[in-house]
Amino acid sequence: MHFLVYLLMHLVTISMTDTDAVCTQAVVEKVKSLVPDIQHIESVIPGYGKGNNYMSFVYRICVRFEKSKDLQWLFVKVRPKDESQVTEWADFQIAFGNECAAYGHLKELELPMPKCILENPDIIVLEDLTNEGYTMLDKAQGFNLAQTEAVLKKMARFHSNSIRLRKENPNSFETLCSRFQSLIPNFDKMPKDSEFYDKMVESIGEVEYDEIKVLLSGYKDGKLYDNVKQFLTLNKRNEDHELLGIIHGDCWINNVMLKVSEDDQDEKKDVKGSGSKIDVKFVDLQGIDANSVLVDLVTFLVTSIDFQVLIDHYPHLLHLYHKHLNLPHLELFRKLEKYKEFALPLFLYRALPTRSVTKEEYANNFRLFARFLRKYNFL
């Protein structure tokens, strides 16, 4: 049995875009009553295809505004209310509350995110980024070098602003932190039996390095999840940690949307970013929290980049992030050493199963990541 099929047998998930799960008309009326200046709602379609879990029901709604008479697409997220509609792996009430708080309170930290038209405990209405030319890239392929650089620059600026706020105005930082609750996956709901893990290792095939074989043998029987949980909680809200700031909390390719700026577009330029300026937006802000900024950095590097780009440019990417963090006295590279031990379990937990389908892809992706670990002394 394929590893992903086996995984789906263990995890209870739903399609959060199934329009049968909530009353579409009720959503339409809610939006029309709460968003000012809407003259008419032209159409409503599911936000994304079935099978994507966005921890809310999502819709794209085309509206006509009273004053401008212009048509505009909006992206609407509705909080599930029926417990039977949600998964068991995370707290949906916390997730939705965090996202509302993010749109209401993170503008000053310069986190690039969609424009929020409305946020309340039941519904969030955003600009539709796809209508503005933004796109979500293929997670199997990962970001190329230009795309990765664009994301790291924006991420570093957001992190830098949050660290500066903590250092220069600790009371304001504490108030901001109080608006968010920790959203840690419920690892107790994950399958602990060794057969689950063995299926993934079997899909990897032959492992080239003995030291990696030893590590793989140590992640059985739920220990993989223990490592990931330690990664997420190591410096969570630790005021003594030099790199404590506000983080996205789920910073990987599916939560980043890109577009080429209009001023830079011509027939030779596209979202691949070769020689062009790339705009970045971070989406799905349910995991916002106070934690080490290295959680975002390591998660992004391990899960979201073309593996060959990671092998060829890892030192450059770290220096680029450090440069745009613009906090020269912070010992980023020394602090990062502690997080190296989590790269492989995080890769196995998040990157390998989401970026691989065939057995050949499993084997090739693991081989490339193992080369990266070996080249940069992660082992």
Account of the protein in words:
There is one protein chain. With 379 residues, this protein is α+β, with helices and mostly antiparallel strands. The protein folds into 2 domains: 2-132, Phosphorylase Kinase, domain 1 (2-Layer Sandwich); 134-376, Aminoglycoside 3'-phosphotransferase, Chain: A, domain 2. The protein contains 13 helices and 9 strands. The strands form 3 sheets. Strands 1-2-3-5-4 form a 5-stranded antiparallel sheet, sandwiched between helices. Helix 4 (145-168) packs across helix 5 (170-177) and helix 10 (307-325) packs across helix 13 (359-375). It is globular and about 65 Å long. Mean pLDDT is 84; it is low at 1-22 and 264-269.
